[in-house]
User: Fold this.
Amino acid sequence: MVSGLDEFIARCLIIGSTNLLITSSNFPIFASTQNTLIMEGYTSKSGKPSGVVAYEIGDDYILVRFHEGPPYKYSVTSAGHDAVAKMKELALNQQGLSTYIARYKPAFE
Assistant:
């Protein structure tokens, strides 16, 4: 149960073309039965608000979801190995991912 708006972080479960909003106090998870997409919640350790809300790490890509719009896929092919490795590191450390993307503007698919 959500005790206040300041603790509210959304989980979004997407089933077909229907959106269902589910609340969670810690980890937003975005899922699609069409793409079998499960994303880890992202909360910056710096304490500052982040543009990134969730991510998914694959062998040769990182999928990043921002507050608005669809997820962006940064792959080894589009952004390069070094950029993808750095973004994976930042995502796992929960710090600096949004800043890195804004600063270096890696290409996405």
